[in-house]
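A quick word before the example. In earlier lectures we treated sequence and structure as two separate objects. From today on, think of them as two lines of the same record. Here is YbbR-like protein written that way.
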Amino acid sequence: MDQKKRLNILDHLKKKNVKLFILFFIIAFVFLIFSKLSNDYKQTLKLKVNLVNVDDEILLKNDSTNYIQAYVEAKGFALMPFLFDNSKVLDINAKSEVTTKPLHFIFDVSKHKYLIEAQLGSAYDVISLMPDTLLIGYSKRASKFVPVHFKSAINYAVGYDLKGNYQLNIDSVKVVGSQEVVDTMSSVSTETLSLNDLKSDLNNIVRLDISKYKNIEVFPKTIEVKGEVVRFTEGTIEVPIIITHKPENVIINYFPKTVTLSYYVDLENYNNIEALDFKVECDFSELEANQTFLLPKVTKKPDFVKHVSIKQKQIDFIEL
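And the structure line, produced from the sequence above:
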């Protein structure tokens, strides 16, 4: 019995020793790794030049030579991200950090060493850079600005309508592409904005539609459309008729002397409407042979009034 107990104790101690050995081995290995990573190492990094702030009509050539070889010294910790991929993107401002020439940009690498060091970070000491100068090829497409045409199919709820006009955040966009196609473009339309039973203010992002143009890009690709939607009501008003372009030697008597206009207006402006805000004219010069009536037309109305119609479709007259 005592011998069995001694064997169990020995087995327990052996197992405990093995576990301690493994623990100390792991700790020693971790310390070894940390000590190695704390040392300074030298490595060559590939910096992929990425031009930013480039004009929309510029097409950069995806050239494999658009790289800078940076020979750096850094701690092992700092170089760990490059263990499996030794490349990094370097952002270069096309407006201020390169020289523009026909068909290529020139980037003075040695002159902009400070910029490379700043993007790599203080953990890296740049020893050398190759090449001294980098040529980045490009091609240029035609471009111009054209106005935007907003297309809508909006149905407002009963008693509601748009107050004023639609407000676009921009009124023109840049189109870029082949010279032949760009020259034919006079405007760009939006995709049709379709809304039903609208009774709240309009605030939508709408894409521009260039589907009918081949190999054309537009900048920006969307516009913002806003509009104030308020309650509207219908009103009527009597307005006198004005006869225009009647020869001085012609005397006529016409009836009626006034017409009734119906109109649609927002509630805020309903009480501000007066007959003087409208003008209804009959153009005598538009008479056809043997015609005994004139056609009234609304030639003046307030900007905030919508859907004006004349109840009397014709004005009878006789020559005296």
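Notice the following. DSSP finds four helices and 24 strands in the chain. We will return to this example when we discuss secondary structure assignment.
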